[in-house]
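Model: Ready when you are.
Researcher: Fold this.
Model:
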Amino acid sequence: MFPNVPTGIFDVISQKAKYALRALVALAKANDSLMIGEIAARKNIPRKFLEQILLELKRHGIVQSRRGKLGGYALLMPADRITFGQVLRIVDGPIAPLPCLSRIAYRRCPDCQTEESCEIRRVFARVAESAREVLDRTSIADSLSSSLLDDTGRKARELATL
């Protein structure tokens, strides 16, 4: 599969991506800079791992660091402009269940005769497109909204009744 991408069908995102998203949510809620130790404690993230994640997000222009007594990390971009899809691509790489569906790291599947006739690819192409649509439309700010939580709860209840 892809490097840095989970291999299990139910491992949709890596633990590193979850930590990155949690850290960004903490920064969005703070509306100011936070020290790494504060973020780590609030979101239960190993400090050393969080340092690596924040440096990666800094290199991509998502967060900024400040030195000194009032230093720490803060969002560089507004929370409503940072999407889940953007963060996942930075941390985990392509958002694609099959290498032949990746937009940025395309690879032909070795066991596939033709992509046009591949039944598996057709189904997972729909899955990938749906996932990208949601992830690329959902921002860190959206995740803080109670309406998103309400939608998630309602959808989970609907699925439970199927």
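Researcher: Now this one.
Model:
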Amino acid sequence: MGRRHGASGCPPPPGGVIRFDTFWPLDIRPFALVITAVAQTCLLAAVEIGFRRGLGPETTRQVAHVVGAASVAVLPLFLRLSELVLLAAFFTALLGWTRARHLLSSVHGIRRVTVGALVFPAGLLLAVLLGWQHPGAIAYAALVLATADPAAALVGRRFKSVAWPVMGGHKTVAGSLAFALVAVAIGLLIGAGAGDVRLLAVFGAALMLAFIEGSIGYGLDNVPVPAVASLLGTSLLGL
């Protein structure tokens, strides 16, 4: 009977150093995953503290939206796809649990009916999956969701303009124009950074995304907007 090498029965690697990935079947680095999850959780903790110190839930929710989505613009540079999938699953579960338990009022405490926070991680994950190996496209999708979407909400509330009904509310011309302008700015900036500015494509992509955002209510636009933006980034903008 042969001699066994440790509990796994596998011979030790050269030099006697045991690699963790020998026992970890997935392409996941626990340390990187935990550090990122803790950082994102700290963001939620920070907006909750702001809420309890007097900031309104619309403000704290928008801060979480902007910072959380914008962070995804750079996360694929540091994390593997499998790690991003786990992060999305974790935060979907966390946001669903806090909503069910009436916790995290900084995110869930707004008066309007919306499931935007619950589908937020899924929309960003779709953008990552559709644009994987195209970091410019993922950055474009993440930044459009991070900035153009809140700009549409802010301008739509502050300026009276023609409005139309959607599920769970209404959208306005002013909000859609704000969305499109911010999306154009993001497309131009990322295109300039990549050394390939496609002016007509940038405007076309912005208008298409503004149409999608202006057609869907209940916060469900958080799913198709980043997903389609990622596809447009790879196919139309050449990112």
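Researcher: Key takeaway?
Model: The chain is about 65% helix and 5% strand.
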